[in-house]
# Entry
Amino acid sequence: MNFSEKLKDLRKEKGITQQQLADAIYVSRTAVSKWESQRGYPSIDSLKALAAYFSVTVDMLLSTDEALRLAEEDKRMQGKRFCSLVFSLADLLMGLLLFLPLFAQRAEGNVTAVSLFSLSVGLPLKAMYIAAVALSFLMGILTLILKNRTAVRFTKHDDEISLALGAIASLLFVVGLHPYAATLAFALLAIKVTVLLKRG
# Structure
């Protein structure tokens, strides 16, 4: 007997609806329905809550194959969560470029370090710099906020968007001859790429 059948039997023995079970373990009715129709498995935490609610062991709920599959899925999700956290922190650190004196201001043969807000360049170029930094920072905020509200990423391409924004910022700062800003942007991009490759 597989997990979905065991869950259905335990729920019926207790004489409760899917909604009542969902309310008891703090999940949605849709989640319970999905588990009972073999369209997914609960998280480790939900599995523990189910076992406690029905006064059974987790081993009793899962077959060996299901336990292995669930452990692999949990490991994969932890990798995704870690990657998402690193990406969002790297994107948030891009916001430092707005305030730290990492941009080269050239005037009368002298070069001084200024913040992005103090940088005197043409308006279109400054707007591109600010947009690149602000979009990266916004991406970091959205990733942090939305990863806590949903189990899945807020888009299917948030990693790619984050990498693209980092690459664009790095390229803009290299072309604009701002070595310190380019170095910071490139270092943050390298961290993201490394984490993504290790997650594999």
